[in-house]
């Protein structure tokens, strides 16, 4: 695990790392913010970014470090997919392949050998956070934006006792019912729609998956993707039907951008 | 003046504009943050960015909007040079030409027709802020980073009653004595070193230019450019010699990056 660069920030340190992943069989990058208090961080915010993002977007644009420093919480932001591969269709669009892993375990030829971001995040990175950065009793929460919000919901619901809290900004909550999700699931999982269900937060809830803590979603009402891609209400309905506590905070006038995330990250943290 | 995009942010709005500049004779871009309170902004923070930057860097990376919103201060960030030209050597390096205007009025062939960022900022943009964004009694302060810190010091010292306060992060304070400044001044002004002096904050101070308010400088002590390019102590010395109140805040361990700027922008505002 190699530190590519680091800078002092809000009394702590922002660092960019690269390591060889056993799961994706590629080099992977992630960024961290370490409050560098006298004691190890009391918890970790594991942030999954959206389509086209890298390990840089959230840590540069969200302005979270001040609030994390105040509370002695570390941040870790993985990249959004393996890099440096040349799989079929991997580099042809913004919503599939590179930068668009959807945080699942792919089963299609080529992709199944590398695009296992689910196990990369949930096992390899999770264990690395526990062994390298925080003490054994510190908590890890999972959150994300858009495709990363989908990732946070799915990974968190499948592993409720590994993640203290699940939260998201503008998540894709029901990917099997929206164009982004359908394209990605076809490419990563094939056309067996039963297999799709274990990677869809709304479907997981219907199958009995839930989380002991309230799930928090922030959603802008001027988000151009709300109606066709995010489908927030589908998740709200199954949470109500299946008894999962969910708090959706709708924000008048806010869109899908990091300007929206920055505006509410303090409250969210 | 055309709005290219806008997003709600901290209850106000971030906007990116493009307009035809009479001074640079090119299209120019700038970004603004408007707190959108009930009343027009009480003041404007005019921010000049450093080498290689555009109108985007500060507004995306510094995390200033929250504090500006709280105080009803607007922000305006111009681009760092004219764009879309093909002047000699304009696109060959990071420290001259495109993205590296040094905020002066060039006098060399080709550059003198377009690279008059001094008058673009100090007249065209200044008047546009006054007429489009703030009320007549609102104040404009000028600040910047690195090359933009140099710009803020020079423009502010030459026009002390137009700018309420001058401040800077890691400014180039004595460009005629450092490699970045010498290269730029040779290219924009030619080799008459007397002409260089009117674009050098340390030399301006020696010629009697000053500002009625204290000048504030934030400077990281792990900044790799401190010793060879920024020369902070040269400016501190002339301020002391000529009676200009100056507050230099040195910060242990901080470098030249936006991680440093973000860490101290709240205090600075």
Describe what you observe in this structure.
- Two copies of one chain form a homodimer.
- Chain A has about 270 residues and is an alpha/beta fold.
- Chain A has one domain: Rossmann fold, CATH 3.40.50.1820.
- Chain A is about 35% helix and about 20% strand.
- Chain A contains ten helices and nine strands.
- Chain A has a nine-stranded mixed sheet with strand order 1-2-3-5-4-6-7-8-9, with helices on both faces.
- In chain A, strand 6 (about 140-145), helix 4 (about 145-160) and strand 7 (about 165-170) form a beta-alpha-beta unit.
- The longest helix of chain A has 16 residues, at about 115-130.
- The first copy, chain A, is globular.
- The interface of A and B includes residues 61, 254, 255, 260 and 266 of A.
Task: Throw out a few tags for this protein.
269 residues; homodimer; alpha/beta; Rossmann fold; globular
Oligomeric grouping of the chains: homodimer
Any idea what the CATH superfamily of chain A is called?
A: Alpha/Beta hydrolase fold, catalytic domain
Which sheet architecture does the biggest sheet of chain A show? 9 strands, mixed
> How many angstroms separate the termini of chain A?
28 Å
Strand order of the largest sheet of chain A: 1-2-3-5-4-6-7-8-9
Strand-residue proportion of chain A: 15-25%
Number of helices of chain A: 10
Determine the mean pLDDT of chain A: 97
Give the C-level CATH assignment of chain A.
Answer: Alpha Beta
The portion of residues assigned to helices of chain A is 25-40%
What characteristic shape of chain A results from the CA principal axes?
globular
Extended strand count of chain A: 9
